[in-house]
Amino acid sequence: MNKGAYPESTDRIELVQTHISLVFLTDNHVYKIKKPVNFGFLDFSTVEKRKYYCEREMELNRRLAPDIYLAVLPVTVDNGDVVIGGKGRIIEYAVKMRRLPMEYLMIRLLRDNQLSSEMVERVARRIALFHAEAEGSSQIDKFGSTEIIRNNTDENFAQTQKYVGKSITKSQYDVIRAFTEDYLNNRSDLFQKRVAEGKIKDCHGDLHLEHVCITEPIRIFDCIEFNDRFRYSDTAADIGFLAMDLDFHGRRDLSETLMEAYVKFSGDNGVLDIVDFYKVYRAYVRGKVISFQIDSPDPTSRGETLRAAQKYFSLATSYVGLKP
């Protein structure tokens, strides 16, 4: 929080914390430092690992925001002074980014009732182009198999059992689990078709409204860098995440616009055959992740957190109800 710690002058410094990062905002830049945590699916437990994942974060996010992710800088201490990009003993690493205009984030535009169909179509076009260019391989194809997908969904159900009766009702849990198992057991041909058509790619993995900035060009940022398993997926799971998030915020009209435009720009008509499955999956994951925050020691936000998780699980259940 010391202004002298930064490689450029700044009038202010803000700190935003997530469960895995410390994010320092200066007048014009963002410096993101990873916390020394290990959650199993994510391991930032050593300085060497944090450096590696900082480099991965910059490399992967430059696919969709090349001018935003600028450098990975050492955080050093010399004569008791902590400096980003300085000399001395390295104690951490930071990803340096250019600040984006927050008023153009999709979530902000939506809340201000400024998010138009034309904007959503532009986003769909950018994502379709990204998916067309994203890496695919025989190794990545494996993540489109029902076996791998079942591992992911089983993990979700195991991790949410403790929240049954809290953020998710037993009825919702049972309905969504039965739907998921039935889909994986009886629609294996559909998953195989998606693999055969080359639709399993190195995607973004966390494609929701807070990570899309509708500037010129559109910038999409903060993809998952810490675990390839969460990025390697059907492109339908990627675009379905954003469609689900629009549904969550009460804009099913824009969700439909997004999917129609994505089909037009990608030529992927088959995405509509499977996107509901992935919308259930994405809504459930969001409900799960927010449920984890219920265990936070901060009681002031617990009620709001609980309501958000309940809303995501209700949304997941509504998709099951929409199935014929």
Give me a quick take on this structure:
The chain has 324 residues and is an alpha+beta fold. The protein has eleven helices and ten strands. The longest helix is centred in the last third of the chain and has 22 residues, at 271-292.
The CATH architecture designation of the largest domain is Alpha-Beta Complex
Amino- and carboxy-terminal Cα gap: 55 Å
- Just give the CATH class of the largest domain: Alpha Beta
Counting DSSP E segments of at least 2 residues, the number of strands comes to 10
Number of folding domains? 2
| Major β-sheet annotation | 6 strands, antiparallel
SSE string: EEEHEEEHHHHHHEEEEHHHH
Q: Helix content range of the residues, please?
A: 40-55%
Number of helices: 11
Low-confidence stretches: none
The fraction of residues assigned to DSSP E strands is: 15-25%
State the shape: globular
CATH fold node name of the largest domain: Aminoglycoside 3'-phosphotransferase, Chain: A, domain 2
Coarse structural class: alpha+beta
Itemize the secondary structure elements and their pairings.
Layout: E1 14-17, E2 21-25, E3 29-34, H1 47-61, E4 69-78, E5 81-84, E6 89-98, H2 106-111, H3 117-133, H4 138-141, H5 146-160, H6 170-186, H7 188-196, E7 200-202, E8 212-213, E9 219-220, E10 232-234, H8 235-248, H9 252-266, H10 271-292, H11 302-322
Antiparallel strand pairs: 1-2, 2-3, 3-6, 4-5, 4-6, 7-10, 8-9
Helix pairs in contact: 3-9, 5-6, 5-10, 6-11, 8-9, 8-10, 10-11
